[in-house]
Design brief:
Layout lengths: L2 H20 L1 H28 L9 H32 L2 H29 L6 H4 L2 H13 L5 H4 L4
Helix pairs in contact: 1-4, 2-3, 2-4, 4-6
Length: about 160
Amino acid sequence: MALFDWIAAALLVLSMLFGLVRGLVFEVVSLAGWVAAFLCAQWLADDVGRWLPFGDPAATWRYAAGFVLVFVAVAFSVGLVAAVTRKLIAAVGLRPVDRLLGGAFGVARGAVALMALAVVVHLLALSDSAWWHESRSAIVLDAALQGLKPALPEKLASYLP
């Protein structure tokens, strides 16, 4: 096995272990929280930036400060909801099933991360490197990208194998 194969296996195992420890419900709520935090931050950053009580009202840093404040507030709030949800799952007695499904979610998340890495490898033209050609994982990732190629935008798909 090539070095990249070991890295890919480690990424999948680590992602699976994180999923096993956290559980599916916590993982899904957390993922939804990150998406919600990003969307809310984009939507509310300008307004929150104007409410800040210091500096020039027209300063460009206000948007960035508002974005960070909204993002952190929403992510923290959803984190609290995820923690309460985890406790409810444990109280009902579904924790073992939740953890098992969390492990499966972790493997899927690791696979998506590896495919994103493969896209970056192809975008940077690193796929001609020896370490990529020696890897068995690269063959599987390239085949997966070939299967996804029709669903991707043409501009991005043109860089893939």
